[in-house]
Write a structure and sequence with these properties.
This protein is α/β, with parallel strands linked by helices. The protein folds into 2 domains: 167 residues, Rossmann fold, CATH 3.40.50.2000; 170 residues, Glycogen Phosphorylase B (Rossmann fold, 3-Layer(aba) Sandwich). The chain has 12 helices and 14 strands. The strands form 3 sheets. The protein has a 6-stranded parallel beta sheet, sandwiched between helices. The chain has a 6-stranded parallel beta sheet with strand order 11-10-9-12-13-14, sandwiched between helices. Strands 3-4 form a two-stranded antiparallel sheet. The two termini are 13 Å apart.
Length: 343
């Protein structure tokens, strides 16, 4: 079986779902390769439509990540004409993006006729298989969807410090641009927490969203597109993590990647009660689930002040994370590709 994979970009999604799975799969002898650009013979019409005449990839399975373009749909059609099985890789509910999310205008069919979420749905409809990161995303194709959870490569575990350098600091990773209503899920509970709050990403608007004095929030570090460097920034800038999410269809489809990163890096956390967050906390024992303003305050304070419980959670998290690495579970990706090849 020869598998060619096309990432959506060079960011975190392609790192966790394409580039790292390819690296690990190749290490066990799987013939897999990813390409920044797909090689085709095509006609690009003045209307904006792309017509694909030939796919110049010698492979059995073609994996297309988040296929938002009409051109990608045309590639999938041509691939199947050439006898190549098509897998769509999806890790977000593209039809439930918050209206204030900075991504939303770029996937709206009314604003982007040749690059939008409906082309992804059309490509999924003709695909031979759909791989998704959470059970909620199987709604895009229940009969063809396979859940392949997000996992961290073993390299992340090596960055876990023996002692947290920011033990009494609360931390969050992200930006309000892509999390426009998530910090508000704390309902102002962190106003009753007197620890400093450090942000890895962008701190603009964070204090208002958390309903805390601006002086309590600082920018620990800006986002680093190099994922291992980003992990190091997390470990250096927070001792207790928070992972608040608005209870919405979009967030119900999100994986527990952020708490998993914290867990692997030795950072006990408090998170919102989405299905994936509750599952991860139940499995790992490395975090707490808050369902009200009062619980956010009590649980964050508990992790800040109870050293014994903090260390217990760090230890549980280390054991769980070591058992959940991509290297240990690469079979989930490989079996999905094999299923597509045999379909």
């Amino acid at each position: 079986m020869k598998v060619h994979l096309i990432p959506m970009d060079d960011g975190a999604c392609s790192y966790y779902r394409i580039r790292e799975p390819v690296r690990v799969a190749r290490s066990i002898g799987v013939d897999a390769e990813w390409f920044a650009e797909i090689q085709v013979v095509a006609t690009h019409h003045p209307s904006g439509v792309t017509e694909v005449h030939e796919l110049r990839h010698d492979c059995d399975v073609l994996v297309l990540q988040r296929p938002l373009m009409q051109a990608t749909y045309a590639i999938a059609v041509q691939a199947q004409r050439q006898g190549i099985k098509v897998v769509v890789e999806l890790d977000d509910d593209l039809h439930a993006v918050h209206r204030r999310n900075t991504v939303e205008p770029f996937i709206d069919p009314k604003k982007q006729p040749w690059h939008n979420r409906d082309w992804a749905a059309k490509t999924i409809a003709i695909a031979d298989l759909l791989t998704v990161s959470t059970p909620a995303l199987t709604r895009y194709g229940p009969e063809k969807a396979v859940v392949v959870r997000n996992r961290l490569p073993e390299a992340c575990l090596a960055l876990r410090p023996a002692v947290s350098p920011a033990r009494r600091t609360v931390g969050w990773t992200g930006t309000l641009g892509v999390h426009p209503a998530d910090l508000q899920a704390t309902e102002g509970g962190l106003a009753k927490v007197q620890a400093p709050i450090s942000i890895v990403g962008d701190d603009r608007g964070v204090a208002d969203a958390l309903k805390v004095p601006p002086g309590r929030v600082s920018l620990g570090a800006t986002w680093d597109p190099d994922i291992p460097a980003y992990w190091k920034l997390i470990a250096e800038n927070m001792g207790v993590g928070i992972a608040p999410l608005e209870m919405s269809a979009f967030n119900e489809s999100k994986s527990a990647l952020k708490p998993t990163e914290m867990c692997a890096l030795g950072i006990p956390f408090v998170a919102s009660p989405t299905s994936e967050y509750k599952r991860m906390v139940a499995e790992s024992g490395a975090g707490l689930i808050a369902q009200s303003r009062g619980q956010w305050a009590r649980m964050v304070n508990r992790l800040l002040n109870d050293d014994a419980e903090y260390e217990r959670m760090r230890q549980r998290g280390a054991e769980w994370a070591a058992d959940q690495t991509l290297e240990r579970h690469i079979g989930s990706f490989v079996h999905a590709w094999e299923r597509a090849a045999d379909s």
